[in-house]
Amino acid sequence: MKRMIVWVVGGVLAFTIFGHVLPAMASNSEAPVPRKEAEYLTQSFNATGAKATSFVIHDYSTVNQQFMSVSDLQNLSETIASEFGLTNVKAGKRVGQDKHIIELSSTWSTKTSLSIVLSSFHMTDGMPDSTILVLRARNETGNVAELAPQMSAVSTELRRLHISPQLDAYITGHVKPKLSQEQTDHVISKAFVAVKAERTEGLSSTLVTSISGYSSEGPTYILSNGKKMNLQVALHWDGYNHQTNVIVGTPIIIDPY
Prior knowledge:
- The chain is α+β, with helices and mostly antiparallel strands.
- It contains 4 helices and 14 strands.
- The chain has helices at residues 33-46, 70-83, 147-160, 181-194, and strands at residues 5-9, 26-27, 51-64, 89-95, 99-108, 112-121, 130-139, 167-175, 198-204, 208-214, 220-224, 227-229, 231-238, 243-250.
- The strands form 2 sheets. An 11-stranded mixed β-sheet has the order 1-4-5-6-7-3-8-14-13-10-9, with helices on one face.
- Helix 1 (33-46) runs antiparallel to helix 3 (147-160).
- The termini are far apart.
């Protein structure tokens, strides 16, 4: 199948990461980590009893410590598109004196949308130059069985490009009734018990409850306030759709909820 990349010049591209500033993830195992992460996450989510609606795989990786030219960054983006087997790719770029940004978007695998942002920065404050990759794959079929093979594929393709993956993932679903605080706490407890996780921090309000924790069964973790963390479970009432949304992520939920 012929691959096509359409370049759109001049559009403003940006990306934002919500939540914690993440250090590099540490691994607890030499086994295939992405698949173990997906299985760990799925096990925790399934314990909530929620109906899955989507999942997201997110990666934030350092490509190199260089300020890459526009042509080199474009060549890299085309190599990435080829490695992932993307077709009919839409692409845009923004060129500045101290930053070059390229974004790719396409449909990847079975009903999964994939976006990749490559950002190269020339630093003037004594910090090293750097090129960063942000990848986001979203599947809205509700088929969480696709999570493990897709996380593994993302990791494998990035490593082939000599990019060390730093993966996050979360599963979104819902339960129909509006839960009391006691019921909310019970759902979160089931998600934690399923993977033998212990609570490390959390917040609770009338609309949102979000609890983070750590389990030795998870293959990776980050540090937050000096504590290991590899599980976050959040519930909030969605009055528009009349359902309680349930989001379970590892090591954290990377998006606002």
